[in-house]
Amino acid sequence: MFDFSYFPVLETAHFRLRQITSADADAIIGLFGNPEVMRYSNSPPILTNEAAVEFINWLEGHFQHRAALRWGITFRGDDRVIGTCGFHFWDAENRHTDIGYDLLPEYWGKGYMTEIVRVLVGWCFQNLNLHRIQADCTAGNIGSERVLEKVGFTLEGIWRERDWEHGRFVDIKQFGLLRREFLPPGS
Ligand SMILES: CC(C)(COP(=O)(O)OP(=O)(O)OC[C@H]1O[C@@H](n2cnc3c(N)ncnc32)[C@H](O)[C@@H]1OP(=O)(O)O)[C@@H](O)C(=O)NCCC(=O)NCCS
């Protein structure tokens, strides 16, 4: 079982996923200050260096408390962060966690996040002793839904008008993936 004694680096066909540090503050502003990226989020945009550093420290705190990990997504051979992904709400007793992800719009629609989420989910199942992985997304966020479907998640339900996003209540779709649906039984 993963013990948080180090920050793991993950590799996919195109990407290297690594720890986000304060040196990535500008990249974090570029990502979470972008209205397209934030369109289906109820978090405030990150627009200043101070807010970016606060966010990065918050991520570091989750790592130190062994509660969650958020990786920076970089192309292999280019260390610039172009997105993030990770797990949170890890419940070791009930053996489930939630995942999340985001990418700069110029890289959307190329199959990149599907590639990344497959590796993320595989790492989580292998290293966190999970039985299931959850993800939720705002109704209408078709790109995110498609990523989850392509990785093998099932739509399990819809919370009606659960979140307040950009001045209105929105429906939230809950997706789940069981270990046996992703990994061979016994692995
Ligand atoms: C969601 C997100 C990560 C998807 O990343 P991506 O790299 O573009 O995803 P992929 O290319 O692997 O797959 C996207 C799929 O959605 C489809 N898609 C995207 N937008 C679509 C739309 N408006 N209508 C129909 N299909 C759409 C793509 O065609 C693709 O499906 P396909 O492979 O069957 O053609 C990206 O859009 C993003 O960062 N959005 C902002 C942050 C966000 O919403 N994160 C998720 C929060 S739950």
What does the model show?
With 187 residues, this protein is an alpha+beta fold. The chain has a single domain (10-182), classed as 3-Layer(aba) Sandwich (Aminopeptidase), CATH 3.40.630.30. The protein is built from five helices and eight strands, in the order ββααβββαβαββα. The protein has helices spanning 25-32, 49-64, 112-127, 142-151, 179-182; strands spanning 10-11, 15-19, 69-75, 83-91, 96-103, 132-138, 154-165, 168-178. Strands 1-2-3-4-5-6-8-7 form an eight-stranded mixed sheet, sandwiched between helices. Helix 1 packs across helix 2 (49-64) and helix 3 (112-127) packs across helix 4. The longest helix is centred in the N-terminal third of the chain and has 16 residues, at 49-64. It is globular, with a radius of gyration of 16 Å. The structure holds coenzyme A. Coenzyme A (COA) is lined by residues 37, 40, 101-103, 108-114, 137, 141-144, 146-147.
